[in-house]
Design brief:
14 helices
């Protein structure tokens, strides 16, 4: 069964990557022109993400070790992380397509309960860091507006307020989930969907003890191992800052001054674009969402919207490269 699911996810990933390559908004000649103009900057972005995935893997490893020994090498955790994110990007289920794959691959050595709790905890930590990332984006924008005497119009005020509400609401909600558990409540919530009540109810009754055990492992990280919790969160939060380097490289390529202000611009661009993209995370490969998000964010910050297209194309090429690497790694023993 595990091999069949692995094969199915592999085929879905290949199909999604093929669709993405064939549905670029520009011709292949234009695409090659963008790649050629990017030169070594696109290689820098690809290599940058090798480091980002390494930090993701270490954050997951810290979480896994909280519930017992970790029998996986750092290299194996990195492989599973890359493949998991490749499936997240290609399987159209809200950015969680890699979770079943990682649970299946790790459950062989640490058991289904530990594998499930570690994967769920890492996914929660990944999202939790985004809320802090977006809230930091609001603070950075306000500081830059104060220092650079920007005029904040009504549109920007609305965006900042909505971002703050989403971020603070998400932080509050996740703190509750870390304190009281998540899995049991999610299963019971799904059971309230019309037509699923009886089936989900029976499933929950048959596996109630397993769900309770998984929730106990989730709450243990917050209630009994704050150090590991902070370390994992810090690594994931650092990944968000490193992600801004990719946009920074492209802005420099477009002629922006390679200074602190340009990096903060890149940070704001990736922060607000990632917010738009995550709100529409159910779209496979987020087709068209990030492209529009980059263009809109560039315009909001007074930069040429056309630059958003270049940023989105280069980021898309990098994502396809790593998606291919991740899907291929799934077949490596």
């Amino acid at each position: 069964m595990r091999q069949q699911i692995n094969r199915l996810l592999f085929l879905i990933g290949i199909a999604a990557i093929s669709v993405m390559i064939l549905t670029f908004d520009v011709s292949f000649s234009e695409l090659w022109g963008y790649i050629s103009n990017a030169g070594y900057w696109i290689m820098a972005a690809i290599l940058l993400w090798a480091g980002i995935y390494a930090l993701n893997a270490q954050a997951w490893r810290i979480i896994m070790r909280c519930s017992g020994p970790c029998p996986f090498s750092v290299w194996k955790i990195w492989q599973l992380t890359v493949s998991g994110y490749a499936l997240n990007a290609t399987v159209p289920v809200g950015g969680v397509g890699g979770m079943p794959y990682k649970i299946l691959e790790t459950s062989r050595l640490i058991g289904t309960k530990r594998a499930t709790s570690s994967v769920v905890l890492f996914a929660m930590m990944h999202v939790f860091s985004h809320f802090w990332f977006w809230l930091t984006g609001v603070a950075v924008y306000l500081i830059l507006a104060l220092v650079a005497t920007w005029s904040i119009d009504s549109t920007m005020v609305l965006l900042l307020v909505l971002t703050s509400l989403i971020s603070c609401g998400g932080i509050w909600l996740f703190r509750k989930c870390y304190h009281y558990g998540l899995v049991s409540k999610m299963v019971l919530l799904i059971g309230k969907i019309p037509g699923l009540h009886h089936k989900v109810g029976r499933f929950y009754d048959n596996h109630r003890l397993s769900f309770v055990d998984i929730d106990q492992q989730i709450t243990a990280l917050w209630n009994h191992n704050k150090k590991a919790f902070r370390q994992s969160l810090l690594l994931e939060y650092l990944c968000r800052w490193l992600q801004a380097l990719e946009v920074f490289f492209i802005l420099v390529m477009l002629g922006q001054y390679a200074g602190v202000l340009t990096f903060l611009f890149a940070f704001l661009i990736i922060a607000f674009t990632s917010l738009f993209a995550n709100l529409a995370g159910f779209i496979p490969l987020q087709l068209g969402v990030r492209e529009g998000g980059f263009a809109l964010t560039m315009a909001l910050f007074g930069l040429a919207p056309e630059g958003g297209l270049i940023i989105s194309i280069i980021c898309r090429v990098r994502e396809i490269v790593w998606a291919i690497i991740g899907i291929v790694i799934m077949k490596l023993k």
